[in-house]
Write a structure and sequence with these properties.
single chain, Rossmann fold, globular
Length: 300
């Protein structure tokens, strides 16, 4: 981020992230926390229980995500019973499994922000320890269709993930998207949320450039991007003047075929909140790059 800001260049970023920033040099087409993390916590509190164990990889996204989750649980009557981290890619998950069993002897929610190879070891050892999804449901925010294939559906069936898009989403645009993808890359390949967000950003950038009639004047491209809509596979999305998208929110249960059965979805796209409204330091702040007097952070 500092590089793009210091050079006044533009980045389009297609992956969900931890929020708590709003740069005029970045357009975010993945989820902000209120479009993935927060609604999944609400759903878990309503459907699965009040006690949460937080497990994540040791870097900024899981740490910040868990700060948000802890504040949300405190505000909504939930309880964090444990929190632990692994170095990125580390597979020594046995100590964490033991801590989960000790903290949740009668079952409870496991909120998972692990990434990479850690997820493979985690889900295999979770099952090996007898922690099944009926009593120990895991909600993941970095496990999508590709990861299900890599880890093995036999270890993931019955657990959950929160995203804006699943391959199983039933829209005309998604049917065309999946068919075109499989035709190009193979019938055994799967689509996923970051892939869809990257697809969206190319078209939104194209539309902004066409409206601005230039790709070189970044200020004109920025201004032209505000309000752009696209009939995405997940549903119609809109670029907000905070440089974030209004997006649909979905929770999926991992099924036998490795796809996600959608168990929750918002009826319309959810507007982004880059500055988290549960965390005291950022509560009440907004972002509006269309209004230079407000900019990246202003008191609403």
């Amino acid at each position: 981020l500092p590089v793009f800001e210091s050079k006044d260049h533009m980045l389009w970023y297609p992956v969900q992230y931890e929020g708590q920033e709003c740069s005029k040099n970045i357009f975010y087409t993945g989820a902000a926390p209120n479009q993935q993390i927060e609604p999944s916590v609400d759903w878990l509190l309503e459907k699965k229980g009040k006690e949460f164990f937080l497990v994540g990889s040791d870097y900024v996204f899981p740490r910040t995500a868990n700060t948000i989750i802890k504040a949300q649980l405190a505000a909504k009557g939930g309880k964090m019973v444990g929190e632990d981290y692994l170095p990125l890619g580390n597979t020594e998950v046995t100590p964490i499994i033991s801590k989960i069993k000790a903290a949740l002897p009668n079952g409870g929610v496991i909120y998972n922000t692990l990434n990479g190879d850690s997820n493979v070891a985690f889900f295999k050892q979770l099952q090996g320890a007898g922690l099944k999804p009926d009593k120990y449901p895991v909600m993941s925010v970095s496990v999508a269709e590709e990861e299900v294939k890599a880890i093995g559906v036999e270890f993931l069936k019955g657990h959950y993930a929160a995203w804006n898009y699943f391959q199983s989403v039933d829209t005309p645009a998604n049917k065309k998207f999946v068919e075109a993808f499989k035709k190009e890359y193979g019938a055994d390949r799967v689509t996923n949320d970051p892939m869809e967000a990257a697809y969206i950003m190319v078209y939104l950038w194209k539309q902004a450039v066409e409206k601005a009639k230039t790709a070189d004047d970044l200020e004109k491209v920025r201004e032209a991007a505000y309000g752009q809509t696209f009939d995405a596979p997940e549903g119609t999305v809109t670029m907000n003047n905070s440089h974030h998208l209004s997006k649909f929110v979905r929770i999926g249960e991992i099924a036998e075929d490795g796809q996600f059965k959608v168990v929750f979805e918002t009826p319309k796209a959810v507007d982004p909140l880059p500055w988290n409204q549960f965390v005291t330091e950022t509560k009440g702040f907004g972002c509006n790059w269309a209004d230079k007097a407000k900019g990246g952070k202003y008191k609403v």
